[in-house]
């Protein structure tokens, strides 16, 4: 099935999103196609940390 991306994978941000998706597919996805929720959370925690976020920061301090 072809992808219908709504972002530009050639940008730095797009590459980061693609890297996250590839990591989920390669490192988390089980043979039956399911994703282990705890493994996804660990991967997201590391991804956000790699992007420079302090994941231990309280939610009340995060601006949108």
Write the SSE topology:
Layout: H1 12-28, H2 37-50
Helix pairs in contact: 1-2
Describe the structure.
- The chain is mainly alpha-helical and 64 residues long.
- It has helices spanning 12-28, 37-50.
- It is globular and about 40 Å long.
- It starts with 11 loop residues before the first helix and ends in a 14-residue tail after the last helix.
- The mean pLDDT is 93.
Distinctive features:
single chain, 64 residues, mainly alpha, 48% helix
Helix content: 40-55%
* CA distance, first residue to last residue: 34 Å
**Helix and strand element order:** HH
**Silhouette:** globular
* Overall radius of gyration: 14 Å
DSSP strand (E) fraction? under 5%
Helix count equals: 2
Write down the overall mean pLDDT: 93
Structural class: mainly alpha
Query: What is the assembly state of the chains in this entry?
Result: single chain
Low-pLDDT parts are none
The biggest beta sheet, please?
none
Please report the total strand number as a whole number. 0
């Amino acid at each position: 099935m072809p992808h219908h991306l709504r972002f530009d994978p050639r940008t730095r941000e797009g590459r980061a999103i693609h890297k996250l998706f590839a990591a989920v597919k390669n490192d988390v996805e089980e043979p039956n196609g399911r994703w282990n929720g705890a493994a996804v959370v660990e991967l997201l925690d590391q991804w956000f940390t790699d992007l420079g976020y302090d994941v231990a920061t309280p939610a009340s301090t995060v601006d949108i």
